[in-house]
Amino acid sequence: MTLTALIDKDFDMSDNVANAPRYLKDFLTHMLTIKNKSPKTVEEYFISLRIFFRFMKLNRNLVDKKIEFNDISIDDLDYDFVKTISSNDIYDFLFFCADTLHNKEAARARKLSALRSYFKFLTVRLNIMDTNPAKDIESPVVKKRLPKYLSLDESLQLLSSIDGKNAIRNYAIITLFLNCGMRVSELAGISLGDINFSSQTIRIVGKGNKERIVYLNDASVAAIKDYLKIRPIIQNKDANALFIGRNNTRLCVSSIQKMVKTYLEKAGLKERNLSVHKLRHTAATLMYQHGNVDVLALQEILGHEQLSTTQIYTHLDDKRLKSAVDANPLSNVKRNKNS
User: Fold this and answer.
1) For the chain, which terminal residue's Cβ has fewer other Cβ atoms within 10 angstroms, N or C?
2) Which range is least confidently modeled, 1-5, 131-135, 184-188, 230-234?
3) Does residue 145 register a pLDDT over 50?
4) What is the pTM of this model?
5) Residue 191 pairs with which residues in a beta bridge?
6) Sign of CA dihedral 268, 272, 275, 278
7) How far apart are CA 87 and CA 232, in angstroms?
8) At 168, is the pLDDT very low, low, confident or very high (cuts 50, 70, 90)?
9) Alpha helices, DSSP H only, in the chain?
């Protein structure tokens, strides 16, 4: 199989990554096969880099300015062009992202991260550049927002709203979300062989194909066993998939997202603007606030690469502690200045 065919097969994007120009494809292939990044992550790298090189052509007057930005081709560029890029070009690009594309801090930070990785590859791996022009550029400060999550009562409300034709299957899915904190892609990828009832564990394949073992509590085990009693036995490529959808195929991410949204609305939680990923936040928050879970253990359960990602749940607890202090009946008692 050719390199192009390999990328095309993994990404299922024949018009994008598979046909990327060589000066990008080398990097994308390295990220996919050596760094073991997920296809989705590599696709995001490609999109960020394509935007950057479109900007470079526009900024250096290499394209008619009447052409729509998204129509600018970058296929005619090469490594000789890449080697002319400086830190000033990247600063100009970040300003363009903020001023013209109206990218927020997080979006600009992601683009800069892609550029750092790309130029690091060119300097360290390919040795075609002496210095990384993006290395010392400070990333935009991203304001950390507390994640949205369901309260314990709202979680129970959601579980009690599950009914209909596939109620047993859907109850098992939402139970796993609320108890194990897995990502929707991780849940969709679960196969029958990943479950070990003896040890009450489940093998999860997370970002970058990294595996981790998550323990199942009694509610999760019971929900899975109830579902397996009615799960159809199929004879096709998805015969080993845990959750089966239409046409006896593995239940896909979009179907799971749609199903969860339906039950969130049914439970009267539509106004909260919640999503499947918020159920992951809910599981993490409930474990931290009610289970006295150490933040390092929580990091392992959730499959976070960086501890800083997990520590946001400690801020939720800080908020709870402040509420407790504010609830003190003396909190509004102030000194009488006339005494």
Assistant:
1) C
2) 1-5
3) yes
4) 0.64
5) 241
6) negative
7) 58
8) very high
9) 3-11, 22-33, 39-59, 79-82, 87-99, 105-120, 152-160, 167-180, 184-188, 218-230, 253-266, 276-290, 295-302, 307-310, 312-326
User: Angle at CA 228, nearest 5°, toward 224 and 234?
Assistant: 135
User: DSSP letters of 296-307?
Assistant: HHHHHHHT-SSH
Residue of 116, 121, 109, 100 lying closest to 25 (CA atoms): 121
CA angle 243/206/214 to nearest 5° reads 75
**Least confident residue range of 110-119, 132-141, 218-227, 317-326:** 317-326
- Rounded to 5 degrees, φ, ψ at 161 are -85, -10
Does residue 183 carry a catalytic annotation?
Answer: yes
What is d(CA 171, CA 176) in angstroms, rounded to the nearest whole number? 9
Using pLDDT thresholds of 50, 70 and 90, give the confidence band for residue 89: very high
Helix ranges restricted to H, 231-311: 253-266, 276-290, 295-302, 307-310
**Among the options 207, 212, 266, 272, which is catalytic?**
207
What is the average per-residue pLDDT within 255-266?
A: 91
304 catalytic per annotation: yes
User: How far is C-alpha 55 from the chain's CA centre?
Assistant: 27
Residue 313 has pLDDT above 70, yes or no: no
Tokens of 222: 């019971």
**Residue 205 pLDDT level (bands cut at 50, 70, 90):** confident
Q: For residue 215, indicate whether it is catalytic.
A: no
Is pLDDT at 294 greater than 50 in this prediction? yes
Catalytic position from the list 23, 118, 227, 313: 313
**DSSP-derived secondary structure for 123-169:** IIIS---SS-TTTTPPPPPPPP-PPP---HHHHHHHHHT--STTHHH
Q: How far apart are CA 284 and CA 315, in angstroms?
A: 12
Question: Is position 277 annotated as part of the catalytic site?
Answer: yes
pLDDT at 9: 39
User: In angstroms, how far is CA 263 from the centroid of its own chain?
Assistant: 22
Q: Please give the distance of CA 277 from its chain centroid, rounded to a whole number.
A: 9
Give yes or no: 35 in active site: no
Identify whether the C-beta of residue 48 lies closer than 8 Å to the C-beta of residue 110: yes
Q: Which of 57, 278, 280, 281 is catalytic?
A: 280
In this prediction, residue 319 carries a pLDDT of 58
